[in-house]
């Protein structure tokens, strides 16, 4: 075994590709550092806004207290509350001045302010803060004081352990784990194909020595990767002297409770968990490859149990026996307590048991070294009478592994979308908690406002009593009802937190918000009818009529017009209004909706261009295929047509196969979904009675079923592939180098898409085929709004893509009809 390990390690060390690993890690770290370094301080701005609002409220309360002292005087309790307010003002001024100077060392003043605020509300019942949020702030501040830490940037922490945590979550992820497995399988299969196993056999090495000789080197490489990635990731905090930020507390939601978890728990758990997970993958792959299974079968068998484990974790929650928690769904389940240590120990014992079980499988002679002759490893080419060139193209790509690799990437891209959608769905309780707390904050501010008006009214009555004597009629305070209403709303939202994990929580939350916003848009001025306000109510009527559960967490469908407002205007109310109406779901149809909304099809098309599609430039290279083409007189036009047909057929078939499989998996995870779910579709003008018109946004809209829009998207994707295939084939005929063809095609598509998006409002832009590569925004009509042209639609887009693709294809057929000789 030692000889094999030494041989494999020596070969890997001498490979020129070995240096790519540290270079890739350094490039990733450098890129993220540059991005984070140039971004503004989001945490500093957030804190500045929070304490600015509190300072304004405290100043107003102080002014009212002095005014009351001047008019009627203050009691001893009121005098103490004024002194408390003056102390709060002092702390808030100190905090705010530091934040304006980009100094986040405000922890001590923050704790002092919170303590003084607690004293204040014990004297005067005007709680102008959200008590629950203040409790979270206090727990966090206490942890910072305990470890002598200031506040730090949590979004862009380029010089702290939070930056290391972000890197760890990228470097020790499921993607890197399965990429490591793929490299191991390719190395193993290539060595077996090159008869290296026969060389080991001649040197009297045992089966056990050979297979463990492959497992151990890659296990050592995995350990080396962990050490290298960890050292490079933690380098910046070490250099800047911020290594103590490993104790920085991060808020993690457990049900309706926020728990502070120090960063170091991620830094310990992630590399160890990733290492155990990769070791499990390697030992499983070794046992399968020993049985002479192909790469595709090996990856399929390995992926199946982990896919099942992922589905089980989504359907039934966390289980200690599930190894998938080494990489996914570990924060709230493991890190908030000390169970992560027992879990890692348990998984390590499980790994040892797997190694022990693999020993007799690897040692056995069954299925070992029955390597046929080299020419038998690959299936001989026996063409059928028809479609010989198509068969030849497919065989070339298949033998190069391009088809399998493309299929794996498609599973990764489409399946990754489903995984991201499901992770967002699992994070829904945290989103709900933030939405409730944001709404409570807004309610607390309203309550403070009405409470101050209530006391102002009572002060006015008291002044009148002193000046006029006894009043004949006792006036009822008109603000008391508003204070009671604010208290009711606040307590209702607090009780709603305990229902976060209930199955019907979205309905309860939406019902609560609808009760608070009972008026319809038809009751307000039509000049205030925005698409968001109108569409939210009209969609609710359709959902109630069809008995469909709404997607958004809140009670509004936020239109793209308001998304633009959120992008260009830093309005806290607008942001909170939109954030609490997050769309969520985990059904298959919802996953397709997000796949199209995120425009992932552009990545899929890039995969076909880079890996699978073939051109005339392939045959101009000195490769063995030219020998076949010269055996018979084959016209250049025939070769061009064959490659065009092959590219089209393989793109449609692989995309369809991978999409159907992932769709079925998604059905198992979250069900099919509602095919009749009403989706907002934008229009530039009102064509019939089903259309609604918004004056404020100057746009019309209507609703269409999700299934109909998905079918329209499929039609548009069909046309996109047709056009891009024709473009690629034409460039491949004109350019003699295949790689130049790839680069040039991608450049043309990227530039065309950018220009079409940037100059969308130009006259006649609807005839530009690149406009229609933004699939979902064409289908939902948003592109027509941006272009201010109703001609930008699915039907015209499909026709333009097919017609322009056909023109490009026909241009490729022109020219002298040469015969390849």
TrEMBL record:
Membrane found in the keyword field: yes
Keywords, in A-Z order: Membrane, Transmembrane, Transmembrane helix
Any one annotated GO CC term: plasma membrane
Highest taxon of source: Bacteria
Residue intervals passing through the bilayer: 17-35, 167-189, 209-239, 246-264, 270-289, 296-320, 340-362, 403-421, 595-613, 644-669, 709-732, 739-761, 794-815
Molecular functions (GO terms): ABC-type transporter activity
UniProt name for this protein: ABC transporter permease
